Amino acid sequence: MTEPNALTRGTFTFLFTDIEGSTAIEGRIGRERYGILRERQRAILRDVLTLHGGAEHGTEGDSFFVVFPEASTAIQAALEAQRALSAEPWPDDAPIRVRMGLNSGGAEMTGGSLVGLSINRAARIAAVAHGGQILASGLTRDLLEDHPVEGVSLRDLGDHRLKDLSAPVRIV
């Protein structure tokens, strides 16, 4: 992936990912098997996100925080990542389904990491997605109007109140 410090200030598109139901899966199949599946999921995501110039800014457990310089590349990366994850032959007792959330906006490097409310919005959007689903903010959709991604259509899901955010967020 792109070096995290290469993207230090500006308008970006932020992607958060998370395995849906990971705690339940680990409890059902055990730590060792879950760890193997989690690492496979990480490898798939890193391979795809790297191809699209995503800069990994953090991982925690089974989650990723990746930054893209353009909304269109972020959407394309998320779409290809979901396809790659879907094509993987996950065990029947441990299907790995990843939820993804995207938001675009400003951020800047402070104290070695990116800071900005747009980042928090992306994380909150990912938290309301279902496994296998990609949700994006209305801001990200607006940026796509000039650079549409072939074969991608967005469905407006309306305004949503998300945890710790003072105003509703349009989700598509």
Outline the structure in words:
This protein has a single domain, classed as Alpha-Beta Plaits (2-Layer Sandwich). It is an alpha+beta fold. It is 38% helix and 27% strand. It has helices spanning 22-29, 31-51, 71-87, 117-128, 138-144; strands at 9-19, 55-60, 63-68, 98-110, 113-115, 134-136, 159-160, 169-170. The mean pLDDT is 87.
Keywords summarizing the entry:
alpha+beta, six-stranded mixed sheet, 172 residues, 38% helix, 8 strands, Alpha-Beta Plaits, 5 helices, two-stranded antiparallel ribbon
Could you tell me the mean pLDDT? 87
Proportion of residues in β-strands: 25-35%
How many structural domains are formed by the residues?
A: 1
At the third CATH level, what is the topology name? Alpha-Beta Plaits
Q: What does the main sheet amount to?
A: 6 strands, mixed
